[in-house]
Amino acid sequence: MSYNWGVLSSFAQPIEIATDAWSMLWMFPLLLAIAIVYKATKMRILSGGRFVKEVAILFGTISGFMVFLGVTLTILVKVITE
């Protein structure tokens, strides 16, 4: 049995993840996936139009709150540190 140690060793060292504004945009595909899976498991009857509407509302709500929280916390940090 042959092991690929290159793949296994990649788990031993952390990956550098940028924390700039552009890399924060990766949260939106994740939020969309969460909204789709959540609504798919919570809705009793899945109809196309209603499902898309419910997912869009949940995605918009979560995204809006996350953006609001990010702006609020950024302002709070600037006020405290200056």
Structure write-up:
The chain is mainly alpha-helical and 82 residues long. It has one domain (19-81). 73% of the residues lie in helices and 0% in strands. Helix 3 crosses helix 4 (48-81). The longest helix is centred in the last third of the chain and has 34 residues, at 48-81. The radius of gyration is 19 Å and the shape is flat. The mean pLDDT is 86.
Write the layout of secondary structure elements.
Layout: H1 5-10, H2 21-24, H3 27-42, H4 48-81
Helix pairs in contact: 3-4
Features:
82 residues; mainly alpha; flat
Which strand-content bin applies to the residues?
under 5%
* Discrete helix count: 4
Shape: flat
Secondary-structure element series: HHHH
Domains counted in the coordinates: how many?
1
pLDDT < 50 stretches: none
- The SS-based structural class is mainly alpha
Helical proportion, percent range? over 70%
Which value, in Å, is the CA radius of gyration? 19 Å
Q: What is the overall pLDDT average?
A: 86
Q: What is the rounded distance between the termini?
A: 60 Å
Total number of β-strand segments? 0
Largest sheet: none
Short description:
The protein is built from four helices and no strands. The protein has 82 residues and is mainly alpha-helical. The chain has one domain (19-81).
